[in-house]
Amino acid sequence: MTEDFYLSSQQAVITWYNFNECGRDLKPCQAGFFLPRDGSQSLACCPGYFCPEGQVCMIPCREGSYCPSPLQAIDGTCRTTVECPENEPKHFGQYGCGGSAFEGFCPAESYCQNSSSSIPCPNDTNYCPTGVQKPLPCPSGFVCINGIARRQRLITIVVVLVLLIIVLYTCMAIISQWLILQKKVFGELKLVDPPGISDYFIKSDKSNRSMPQFQLNIHLYGAKLRNVTRFDSKRNQGFTGQITAGRLTALMGGSGCGKSSLLETIHGRRRLRRNGSITFAEHEPLSNQLTDYIGYVPQADIMHNDLTVFEAVYYSARTRRLAESKTTIINDVCFVLDRLGLDRMHNSMTRTLSGGQRKRVNVAMEIAACPKVLLLDEPTSGLDTVSCDDLFDLLQLIKYSLVGPVTIITVIHQPSQELFEKIDDIFFLTPLCCLAYQGSRARAKRYLRKKLFSSDPHQCPQPRHNDCDTCFIMLTRVQHHIDNHRVDNNRTIQPLETYSWYKRVWLPFFSVISRSIRQMYVRGAMAEAAYLISYFLLGACLGYLFENKQQGTCDIQVLPTVPRDILFRQEKTN
Q1: Which of 358, 328, 355, 366 is nearest to 342 (CA)?
Q2: Residue 501 region, left (φ>0) first, then alpha (ψ -120 to 50), else beta?
Q3: Over the chain, what is the mean pLDDT?
Q4: Which of 388, 403, 476, 566 shows a CA-CA span of 20 to 30 A to 293?
Q5: Mean pLDDT, to the nearest integer, of 527-537?
Q6: CA dist., res. 240 & res. 489, Å (int)
Q7: Is pLDDT above 50 for 497?
Q8: Domain boundaries, the chain
Q9: Rounded to whole angstroms, how far apart are CA atoms 151 and 161?
């Protein structure tokens, strides 16, 4: 009942209550009333005080609080001026209609010099949020209307400044991008000598190959592929052999025979079945130490469309070659792009490239990182004859350079005779995903003819001009061949060098941040400007909706009163 008076004294609805039972037989007094110490009769709580349910004395309200009541104290008794329903106020006599039941905040748009009355806030020059004892001066940049500080001026200034900054940023980003792409600022990047290219791209003499060098040979022991439809795990005993560093090894066979699956398993993207293993020297494929030593080119062309060709290759190398200078990496990137026929496309956006050009950029991203193991899944797909020759010439160059031998494995379909002769070792897979042959390319055709058609030489196909085609036809004639060519090998030991925590974490992090800033805030200036405007407008709308929330009625309408209630009772008792 009393809370209704606090909200609107003129519209409060009074319900019947038997005041004679207040404090009798452990029955509490109604909220807004209290029972004096003599217990003779219950009285209404006076203005400036509040009386929770069951209170035996009035509790004074604190400064800044508001305990209103339409009751007036006459001769020590509170009487009401409100029209009580059903009965005239005189019928209630000394009981009245009750006072405040809780200690509330001074309402917004007014201030309370004392706890029993509120005064409307002056207009124009002041504002009054919830719970103030005097009007507050209107802040600069705000407009105060009806006791509420509104942000019209401040919002206008902020909107103009933000829009101006976004427009300037967009214009500067577009001009910067145009100048860079038109070679007006930095010019065309080119190889600088000295320092020249790194030793990774300088071919080693045969006289230097006798010395011990860093190399990662790949060993396979009963390796059984997982999730390959044609691989019969019961009949197929798995692959056992070795892929030697310093040689270009090709995985070849018909479509669906498991070439890409084998390459992904070597890389660690797929798991083997039980009791089989693939190791890089003595290291497992998923070892953290191998991260900086392996390069992988998947079938799908994966790159950032908002970078130029040079940037895509450079950032890939920069985040992985942690111990080398920026100038050396730039020289190597220029060298690789030149060898792959991309020297005139440094400043071309990757999204504008054709399929074959994107494939070469993907290959360049991995080669420029100078890995010790390079895995390529169909790198010649979409390439013309000249581009294929350029790619294989580059692979021939890096397979045994001054830094030591590099393990190169590639999946390839139907290479020309010229490309086929550039391959050193071959793994031929049958349609049932068995390893029909592993070893030197020069002995492949003779070995397959002897192994597959020794019992019936008439079934052996006629030789073709391309030895690779001849081997493919041999494999298709033995659809049910299940025997694996096994080559025993001894596992080598090769310790790996690890970079410091600073180089492994912070240098790649800063390189990625640099790339992201150039990619998003320069290349995608229009999109970023649209995002900024959208976020700003959303924030402005939310701010406008809730700008007066703090000045309005607070969600906490009742101040903490329990400690004061206890203290007050103790004082009364004393």
Answers
A1: 358
A2: alpha
A3: 78
A4: 388
A5: 77
A6: 8
A7: yes
A8: 2-103+558-573, 153-187+519-545, 204-313+320-329+346-498
A9: 15
- DSSP secondary structure letters along 111-159: EEEETTEEEEPPSBSEE--TT-SSPEEPPTT-EEETTEEE-HHHHHHHH
Residues 6+ apart with CB under 8 A from 248: 392, 395, 396, 399, 408, 410, 422, 423, 424, 425
pLDDT tier at 338 (50, 70, 90 boundaries)? very high
Find the Cα–Cα–Cα–Cα dihedral 369, 502, 218, 211, rounded to 10°: 80
What is the DSSP secondary structure assignment for residue 34, as one 8-state letter? E
In angstroms, the CA 53 to CA 27 distance is 10
Residue 138 backbone zone (phi > 0: left; psi -120 to 50: alpha; other: beta): beta
Q: Considering Cα of 336, then 340, then 345, then 351, what sign does the dihedral take?
A: negative
Q: CB-based contacts of 249: which residues, under 8 Å, 6+ apart?
A: 243, 407, 408, 409, 410, 423, 424, 425, 426, 427
How does residue 423 score in pLDDT terms, banded at 50, 70 and 90?
very high
| Closest to 216 measured CA to CA, from 244, 241, 240, 239 | 244
| Rounded alpha-carbon distances, angstroms, from residue 350 to 179, 313, 342 | 18, 11, 12
Q: What is the pTM of this model?
A: 0.64
C-alpha 405/C-alpha 435 separation (Å) is 25
Is the distance from CB of 361 to CB of 392 less than 8 angstroms? no
What is the residue type of 416? S
What is the second-level CATH architecture of the domain 204-313+320-329+346-498? 3-Layer(aba) Sandwich (3.40)
Cα(540)–Cα(151) distance, integer angstroms:
11
Q: Rounded to an integer, what distance in angstroms lies between the CA atom of residue 389 and that of residue 101?
A: 93
